[in-house]
Amino acid sequence: MSILVFIEHKAGALNKTSLEAIAAGQKLAGDTGQTVSAVVLGSSALAGEIAVYDLEKVISVENNQLADYTPDAYAAGLEHVVRATNPEYVLMSHTYQARDFAPKVAARFQKGLIGDCIRMNVEGDKRVFTRRIFLGKLDADVVSDGEPPNFVTFQSGAFRGDQAVKGSGAPVESMSVEVGEVRMKPEAPFQEAKQAVDLSKADVIVAVGRGIKSKDNLALAEKLAEVLGGDLAASRPICDAEWLPIDRQIGSSGQTVAPKLYIAIGISGAIQHLVGMKNSQTIVAINKDPEAPIFDIADYGIVGDLFEAVPVLTEEIKKLKA
Amino acid sequence: MKILVLMKQVANKDAILRINKDSTWIEEADLSFEVNESDGYALEESLRIKEKVGGEVVVVSMGPQRAKSVIKDALARGADRAIHVVGDNLGHLSPFAAASVLAEAIREENADLVMTGLQSDDYGYAQTGVILAEVLGLPHATIVIEVDATGDQLRVKRELESGWYQWYTMPKPALLTIQSGISQIRYATLKGIMAAKKKEIKEVTPNAEIAGKPSHQRIEKIYLPQKSKQTQFLGNGDAKKGAVELAEKLRTEARVI
After folding, report:
1. pLDDT the model gives residue A194
2. A307 to chain B: nearest residue by CA?
3. Mean pLDDT over all residues of chain A?
């Protein structure tokens, strides 16, 4: 059997998380003695670029209706390739695009995805995929039952894209596909407003979450950020409540940052937030819930009342800096 | 316009989760439950659409009798009637099985719009809506943050990654999965709570053949996440003492001050 890796792009520009999916495919192939192929929908140029990786082949599916992403066209395209190549596994990165159309493809094979996996282990004949449940509070080891193909998506960062192995040039095979009716008409993607704040360059970020309780309490975090010479940021609920503008939001729908110091105040650490900041050098978490997932990635943790801890921390740092 | 809103009851966000004896799920006996967060926003959006264009909002929930509290709350907030697909283990169905059971339960309603949250806060599959659209033959959009239902066609704004957005137009009927936080959710008024008592809740027994089909994925065990970092916990429960220690550590160990 074989492994098929889906390659995502925006107008021919590779989504780099697809390299992580290639790395996952190569790892699984090595553990199970299978071959890996990749599929690109709607960009033969990108199919050529992907051919530098160590792959059995790159399947390039060309059709005018695949030029712009729609779930109808992409589902038809990927379904066709899966039926034609009959892989045991179809692997992809768990992006917003994959979430939008991959379950539709899987449903045509009477199943869903083993979605958003963070790890994969091969134990003899058994392949175990680990995914987070309960907003990251628990892990679940999942095995697939039943007939192939199995559709598996990986969380961003589960594998390293720079570990995708290059080869001697994989053959590119064109495949033509009937797409049929496409019911959704996309308009051009856009950014809401020019982002006024670029947090990706900040050395120190003080970020607040639901635990801060009210807009007035933001001043506490603001003072801490000020003595540290850092920037104030937030998790999604704070920006949704419009306590801070959206250009201060960290996470999958906001900015991705990796400062020297990241202080998370009253942030529980949902996956969507963690992907935006987990590569920070030193992570501090202050939270009343000892089970909060933010502590899984924190270097220093204070379990307790942030309204007690933050003012003291601000004063102490002021003293140290004096 | 007839709008169906799918709402799931999940463990309370702040609940302390205890793993069951077989390590296959959590202990549910003493747990408190609430509505899945993004499903609450799907309900709010459906009520706002109804206020603009008229019609009916029907709440659909699948789960044991305790799911009635989610249904009654939705009726109190303004939904017109409800369908409850009743069964003790329905919350554990695979996304394909769940969508198939739901499809059978709502097909005859011939809704103009089906809405639900973008994912559940327990299993977090983020697929049931999309698969349901496929099973019912409807077009869909996921991670929707704005809906314009006033025209012949639906126009919806989708959230993409890293601060990008995109509008899609599609014919009705359609299915949308709604992102959390897109509006201010209304509270139930006393009048709403009284009115809800007279509203219809239709109980439906799931199609046993569909619900009983073997799942394609099975949880072997659940456990606390392995920590990727060794966290130094400071203050030993005393937040102020922790803060003093932290300042010192940030200077001497982490050297970031």
Report:
1. 56
2. B239
3. 94
